[in-house]
Amino acid sequence: MAVKLEKKAPFKGDHVGSLLRPERLKQARLQHANGEITAEQLRKVEDEEIIKLVEKQKEAGLQSITDGEFRRSWWHFDFLENLVGVRGYDPGSGLSFKGIETKSYIIKVEDKVDFDERHPFLEHYKFLHEQVGENHVPKMTIPSPNMLLLRGEIDEDTYGVEDILPDLTKAYKKAIRAFYDAGCRYLQLDDTSWATFLSEKGLQSLRDKGYDPEKLQELFTRAINESLEGRPDDMLITMHICRGNYRSHYFSEGSYDAVSEIIFSKLQVDGLFLEFDDERSGGFEPLKHVNRDDLHVVLGLITTKFGELEDKEEVKQRISKAAEYLPADQLALSPQCGFASTEEGNDITEEQQWEKIRHVLDIAKDVWK
């Protein structure tokens, strides 16, 4: 019998999605970039490594199974640049994280945005679905529409910032339906846009670009909710709100207070994966703004940025603290982010990665018996 998503909630012990690329896959991607192997040869290596990864996730005890984002260079650009009207290119410099700069890449909107059935992620999902089988749930991760608004260069001759919204949300509605028709019942939107509002530095960066932060929050809220209008009732759609994750470095900091009323009471998602692995995220008080008994919050209390395991009892105590603001049956546990938001991966070994995942599942079993 197929595993069911109970009450459209994430699993009590879950994960964000991306996983460390094995060395064989990294080498194959490099060979393909250098013209030493064909796209078909690379695809064969990807297929074989994803098959292995699916089994490793099952062995670790996960119920939600991803392809580790093994076919991607970036967690967001690979999806976005394959939308109609969008292309990726090298601008000559990367994004500045705390203590490091990313490799150079960006996306640009050059024509009317749309989604069509030729998008490669549909085939990626279908392959994953075939491998997972009936006793686990295949989970697809894609960037939220806000990532095109925040990270994409938009040709002013094509769109104004607000003018793009109808086409963008229509494209996402089509994408959601296409994944559903391919069998997907668990979809996650990954989003770093909300973290920009959590600190004065982030707010100033928006003002420097000519944005009104308050109006931008309204735009981002509309982008999510309008994209989700009409989604199938039996499809779980969650959102991961990230503060940056590039080779174990972060991008932003600040508590959720600044956007808590929006993310906890206005976004029409079924669940939120939130970073709470260190003091940069603040306390659990913002959870008091949750005004729905069907919204589930997945606490990212286990970090993917280093290999040392968190103290199990301390994690349980933090879950208990969060339960003072939101009932425990609406809470779950996961790592704070993926292990490899980009193909380089975090500074952690594969063995440590699986230890972290098992740690999450062991704690979840103890807490939600």
From TrEMBL:
SUPFAM superfamilies, sorted: UROD/MetE-like
Domain of life, source organism: Bacteria
BP terms from Gene Ontology: methylation
Alphabetically ordered keywords of this record: Methyltransferase, Transferase
Transport listed as a keyword: no
Annotated InterPro entries: Met_Synth_C/arc, UROD/MetE-like_sf
Domain Cobalamin-independent methionine synthase MetE C-terminal/archaeal residues, every copy: 16-344
Gene3D superfamilies: 3.20.20.210
Enzyme class of the recorded protein, top EC level: transferase
Gene Ontology molecular function: 5-methyltetrahydropteroyltriglutamate-homocysteine S-methyltransferase activity
Assigned EC number: 2.1.1.14
Protein name according to UniProt: 5-methyltetrahydropteroyltriglutamate--homocysteine S-methyltransferase
Organism this protein belongs to: Virgibacillus sediminis
Lineage: Bacteria, Bacillati, Bacillota, Bacilli, Bacillales
